[in-house]
Each structure stands twice: as structure tokens, then as C-alpha cells.
Amino acid sequence: MHKAIIIGTGPAGLTAAIYLARANMNPLIIEGPEPGGQLTTTTEVENFPGFPEGIMGPDLMANMRKQAERFGAEFRTGWVNSVDTSKRPFTLQVEGQGELQAEALIISTGASAKYLGIANERENVGRGVSTCATCDGFFFRGKKIIVVGGGDSAMEEANFLTRFASEVVLVHRRAEMRASKIMQDRARENSKITWALDRTPLEVVANDMAVTGLKVRNNQTGEEEVIETNGIFVAIGHTPNTKFLGGQLETDETGYLIVKPGTSETNIPGIFACGDVQDNKYRQAITAAGSGCMAALDCEKFIEGHAVHDWSQSV
Ligand code: NAP
């Protein structure tokens, strides 16, 4: 039996772990298949406050983990198969760890950026393929960039990237876009954005060093062509990692957990959410970390007032 279990080890989960460990709550943190979360797939992080020279994403996450361990946080590796939220203590079935119980849960399982699933794409993440304009746009100063997608994210990223790029080519698989009119209009008014609509991405073209182009099929003519580029930003959406919850917590229509505004509280008392799993909008390491702090403070307060176990008898 644990006071608090944190599921997920991105900036949100690790910040919650630091706070709960420092408050003597002995949190157990379940580390999934991508320890450290999305930041471990990026290179240099230049916008996390406190690192004037920047810091590599994996180093930042390793530091946060060490900081949590220093205060007594316990880490275990495992895949959470299911959670029974119907009564407290909550019961988790965890691959490799068996059944675990906790007074309170913090869900910080993040969201995974969707990839196109085309040849050479995954191999070139960090070498020209990115799913985060805010993180990586700066590295493409004066270069030609492709943004793939036809939703609001793609419009927003294309506009943002014109701050750095000499040209942004927006590649979308259909002639119509699903982005809102206002976001489309904004992109259309931007003279640095050119359009390659009705083009289906087929393959990332790269040499030994970096990405050099994107092979697409022109859906009108059926012909294949290579659009030359130094960077490909895939902006086709994110999937919040909530499957293991089996629909027991309230989500919005896109699957993100809903928290009570200004708090980390889900619809089930004792279960808190932080980071990208409940944030469809900001999705930054620093906002995730901030929400992790909120979850830890909310969780601590909850346990003080609602513990089912008599912790005064525990060593
Ligand atoms: P989205 O609306 O689901 O759009 C995803 C886009 O990617 C679609 O155009 C889709 O093409 C394309 N796509 C999906 N899978 C693909 C594949 N395998 N190959 C090629 N293209 C593919 O996702 P989103 O743009 O991330 O937006 C998600 C939500 O956040 C929306 O509700 C959006 O309004 C909101 N959002 C709002 C703002 C804002 O207001 N500032 C900014 C960002 C996001 P098809 O259209 O052909 O399916």
C-alpha cells in the first residue's frame, strides 16, 4: 500500500515526484516505456528557465529524476495495464509489478505526437524530422521547412516557423483543410508560406547527415515528386495516453483528461492529472512541470484529509 503513485515520468510526473518526496510522502513512480517522456526525443532544450546555455532534453530529465530520488522517491519500471478507480485505495495492475494500491494517484502519462508512419521518418527524428516547432524551430534559421498537416496545429506551426525559416511549405494530403477559417486565413496571409495541397507524404529523403527532402505523391496527377527541405515538422495531432484508464475518468472529445479549472483534480476524488495528458493547448515542459507541482500539492492535501489507511502506525 502506498500513499501516492505517480504514473509517468515526463516533466509533470517528475516534478510531482520531487514535491511529494520532499513532503515525506514516499511516492512510488511508475516509469513506462519512454522514461523521461517526449523531452528525451529532442536534442537541445533552450527555453527551460535556469539553463542559460540550454540543456539536452535527456540530461534535463535525468537531472529531474535524480532530484526526486535524492528526496526518497521510489521508481519502478512497468506498464500499467489497468486501474480500478471504483473504490479507495485505488488498485493498479502493473506488468512486471503485479497489483499495487494507493490512497491517491497522479496521472502524468503525457501525450504522444502522431507520426506519418512513412519510410525514413523515425530514423531522422532529431536530424531534421520534428514534431515540435517551439522546441526545434530555432535550429532552422534561414532554411526551407516543410510542415505536414491540415489542422489548426499545422497552421499554427507553419506561422510560427516563418519567424525562422526562409520559406515554409505546407504539405497536406487533401485539397481541403480541417483547420479553422481564422487559422487558415492567417496562414494564407503569410507570404513566407507556400502550399503543396493534395500531396500524400511517401518518404523522408535524407543523406548520412540530415534530411534533404520529402517525397510526396501529387494526388491530382498521381506523379511522385521530392520537395527539397532541411526540416520536416509533422503536425498531425497528438494522442493523450489514457487507454489504461478504460474510460473511467472524464475526458474531452479528443481524449484529454478534464481537470477542474485552476486545479489538478479529475472527476474522481483522489486522482489528479498533470502535464500533456490534460493539456491540449500549451504542451511545454515548463507548463507540464508547473502542473506537476500543482498535482503534488493537491494530492498531499487530499491524503491529509482523506486517508483510508492509518499511516500513523506505519514505519
Ligand atoms: P487535427 O485537427 O486532428 O488535424 C490533424 C491533421 O493532420 C488533419 O489535417 C489530418 O488530415 C492530418 N493527418 C492526420 N493523420 C495524417 C497522416 N497519417 N498523414 C497525413 N496527414 C495526416 O489535429 P490538430 O491540428 O493537432 O488539432 C487538434 C485540436 O487542437 C483541434 O481541435 C484544434 O482545433 C486544436 N488546436 C487549436 C489551436 C488554436 O486554436 N490555437 C492550435 C492547435 C490545435 P485530414 O484532414 O485529411 O484528416
From TrEMBL:
InterPro entries (UniProt xref): FAD/NAD-bd_sf (IPR036188), FAD/NAD-binding_dom (IPR023753), Ferredoxin-NADP_redctase_2 (IPR050097), Pyr_nucl-diS_OxRdtase_2_AS (IPR008255), Thioredox_Rdtase (IPR005982)
GO molecular function: thioredoxin-disulfide reductase (NADPH) activity
Keyword presence, Hydrolase: no
Matches recorded under PROSITE patterns: PYRIDINE_REDOX_2
Keywords, comma-separated and alphabetical: Disulfide bond, FAD, Flavoprotein, NADP, Oxidoreductase, Redox-active center
Coiled-coil portions: none
E.C. number(s) listed in UniProt: 1.8.1.9
Reactions it catalyzes: [thioredoxin]-dithiol + NADP(+) = [thioredoxin]-disulfide + NADPH + H(+)
Gene3D superfamilies: FAD/NAD(P)-binding domain
Positions of the FAD/NAD(P)-binding domain: 3-292
Cofactor: FAD
Cofactor note: Binds 1 FAD per subunit.
Family indicated by similarity: Belongs to the class-II pyridine nucleotide-disulfide oxidoreductase family.
Subunit text: Homodimer.
The protein, known as: Thioredoxin reductase
Gene name of this polypeptide: trxB
